[in-house]
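ok so heres the complex, two chains, lmk if somethin looks off
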Amino acid sequence: GENVEQHPSTLSVQEGDSAVIKCTYSDSASNYFPWYKQELGKRPQLIIDIRSNVGEKKDQRIAVTLNKTAKHFSLHITETQPEDSAVYFCAAANTGFQKLVFGTGTRLLVSP
Amino acid sequence: DAGITQSPRYKITETGRQVTLMCHQTWSHSYMFWYRQDLGHGLRLIYYSAAADITDKGEVPDGYVVSRSKTENFPLTLESATRSQTSVYFCASSEGTIYEQYFGPGTRLTVT
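and the predicted structre for the whole thing:
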């Protein structure tokens, strides 16, 4: 089955810096890669996703890149703000597998 | 977010007791999922359902039972609670495998 590894487990940056979180997946059939943000005490919420027919997707300060050959994808946050502090989860899925497989999460701390 | 609810939000029970966590969604999503979240383990899938009367095991199903007689409801039962089942439980729903999952607010369960 699919296995998703996520790094780093914690990431501390200064406000205004960029943050990058990386994930690798094992199943070459996976074709959907979402990123979820979970603030302290809250539910996970989707912030951006990418499908395998696209190499990069941007939404304001957030971008995701996908390298299908290397089987890895990354979340990029530019101009970080304190409200970006949260745990971020990557995940992978394919139609045949019927479920998302999550990475173990990255705790991002943005210091003012 | 108001479309998926969980009850109770907090529960304390004793070892050996049966506990049922409820999940209800109003979107008529086909897929529903149960996850548990523990420090250091991220989100681990317990059971999922692709449609009413169709359920399947996830990564950590032992000690749990699910049913789905109606599309909108997906209860999770701990048949004989153990301390290792102390966790935060999230229910989620989606239109399909490769679509956004919407998470409920979570149930914090403590087994004493």
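quick notes: The longest strand of chain A covers residues 19-25. thats all i got rn
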